Hints:
Layout: H1 16-41, H2 45-73, H3 81-112, H4 122-148
Helix pairs in contact: 1-2, 1-4, 2-3, 3-4
Amino acid sequence: EAPGSNWVPDGVSIPNAQMVMAVVTVILASIVGHWAVWSSRRRERGHTYLAIGLMLLLGVLYLNMLIFSLNRMNIVLGAGEWQNLAFTVTGVVIAMSIMSLIYTSMMGLRSLGGDRGPEATAPLASAVLIWDFVMVAFVAAWYVVYVVK
C-alpha cells in the first residue's frame, strides 16, 4: 500500500456511529467505576452497589455494541491485512474487557459482602484501574484501526 492511502478494502463499511457510541459507553463505565470507589471509601452502601451494577451494565452494553459493529462490517478473518489487524486488535480488547468485567464483578461481590471503607477499597479500586486500562486500550485501538485506517 502507498503511504497515506486508505487500506480498508472496498465493500467494508465501518459503522462509525456505533463505534463512537461504544467509545462513549466505555468512558461512562470508567467514570461510574470511579464513583463506585469513591462511594465505597465513604461507606455509602447504596451508591456503591448502584455504581458497581451500572458499571457492569455499561461494560456489557459496550461489548454488545463492539461485537455488533464487527458483525455489521461483515469482514472475514484472513481476507486481508486490514481485516487481520481489525480482528486481532479488537479481539484482544474484547478479551481484556471480558476479563475486566469478571474481575470487577468479583470485587463487587466483595463489596456486597461488606468490604467497604478507606482501608478495604483497594480491591475495587484495582478492578476500576484495570477497566481504565481497557478503556484507554479500546480508545487507542478504535482511533488507530477504525478512524485513521
